Predict the 3D structure of the following.
Amino acid sequence: MKNIFYIFKRELGSYFTSPVAYVILTVFLVLSGWFFYNILAGFIQYTLQMDQQAAYYGVQSGVNVNMMMIRQQFHNMAIIAVFMIPMITMRLIAEEKKTGTLELLMTSPITPIQWILGKYFAGFILYTAMITLAFVPIFLLFLFGNPEFWPVISGYIGLLFLGGAFLSCGLLISSFTENQIIAAAVSFFIFLLLWVIDWISSSLSYTWSSVIKYLAIVSHFDDFSKGIIDSKSVIFFLSFIIFGIFLTYRSIDSVRWRM
Amino acid sequence: MISVENLTKYYGVKKAVNNISFNVKKGEILGFLGPNAAGKTTTMRVITCYLSASSGTVRVAGYNVFENPLEVKRLIGYMPENPPLYTDMTVLSYLEFVGSIKGLSGRKLDESTKRVMNLTAIEHVKHRVTGKLSRGYRQRVGLAQALIHDPEILILDEPTAGLDPKQIIETRELIKSLAGQHTIVISTHILPEVSMTCQRVLIINEGEIAAEDSIENLTKRIRGSEIILVEIEGPKNEIGEKLKRIDGVSEVKFQCTKDNSLQVFHIETKPDFNVRKELVKIVVSSEWGLNEMRTVSMSLEDIFLKLTTKEEEV
Ligand SMILES: Nc1ncnc2c1ncn2[C@@H]1O[C@H](COP(=O)(O)OP(=O)(O)O)[C@@H](O)[C@H]1O
Ligand SMILES: [Mg+2]
């Protein structure tokens, strides 16, 4: 337990001693802020139209802030996360391989699972910080409107699960190479694949298409952004994360045999 | 303290270490001498649990490295060929990190950090980032991290590689001062290095142990002596007897019989003797036929030739 913490602390520290963390946080905030601004502008225009129509026909206007703005903003954040997470995970193991510090970790009295978890948590905390900061504009909506609270929370949890799954996948990919750029590029490619995979499911036979649908991260994430926390989706994300970490462990262990 | 039995390691199809066995006693300094690509690093990586072996067993203080890696890792301080530094950390925070994953904490950690910084003379750079240090200082930080948990066993892979002469001397002094309290294994491809620091030498070449002795005995065995191969036509036993009596011959080894009557021998000479003239005389007077005579160098000498006998200028 302590060992996990030591690794976690060093890893998180090195995100912030290099520009990585600041770049990631800034880019994410700027992009998600920009998307949010656009949604907001669109929303205001739409509301004004609706109000005019309502006045004209003499009915109450009912615009759903949750459906129109918040859900869309969640999707935007998820997409930006697909771009940012490879930058968080690329160095986690690849860099240790390259600089030879892997040799230090592997010859110290800590188990591989301990340091793998330490690294995973460090990446997860940076990701959580990124998501949480980007939530500030969403919370501003509560000051000026009356969105439902629950879908915002469940969307936040959904983003954490989604990121958790991508982080575990990125960690695994980082263990295959000592080149950070390759790790990032491959991760990005795989994340996109996982994101769009349900598009191809329609052209497949029933069994395959249900397998693919199950793997499609976006469909599980959708539930969360609608305010539904489905235990099936929770189990999906948790098992995805655990499986990724387990494979990372196996990949590290096999390094000892192969090389 | 360390016992290696029939260790073999393949990298894919390439055999890096071939069936080697040796022991290191408690408190001993063992030199691991061999040219580049001999398999020194590979052997050390197996002992330190970084690599697994293809076959064979390795025990450290009675623990099998494949079954009880954590116990073994606690006992060993390892300095890889390239110091495993996190280049974005300061020396102090790096040593504290290594100390904590080696199981130190609180006051013990502070004291250990101070102790190793004093020992390796890096106290004055402790707030510098390790990535900005010179090669010599990085090497010292690498040594400091190996020493931090005061391990019983120290494994140092080419600890003086890339240092300037003054730093080399300092590092050797440091290693010598650690003798006695620690069991030490050092690898090097520089011949004089082992004679200066080690009590016993293991010469490893192409993944095999070529010799194992004290350094004095090894140099004595090689200097000036040579091995001559002769092919003589005649009766095997008589030839063997007469060759042995030649002045300056230290050993005669029968190799094989070729074409029924051609006897092949290896003759090892004492240092600085030329036995060829005497040999020819005997062959002629005994009315044998001399088919061939040539020098075959000792394999050990070959290896020594490949070893750097001088330290590179930096
Ligand atoms: N990771 C690796 N993959 C493949 N071959 C390797 C690897 N490491 C070392 N070798 C090969 O194994 C042999 C022994 O290497 P090594 O143990 O590093 O020798 P030394 O430390 O004595 O110079 C060399 O021929 C080297 O090329
Ligand atoms: Mg080596």
Observations:
- The mean pLDDT of chain B is 87.
- The longest strand of chain B covers residues 14-24.
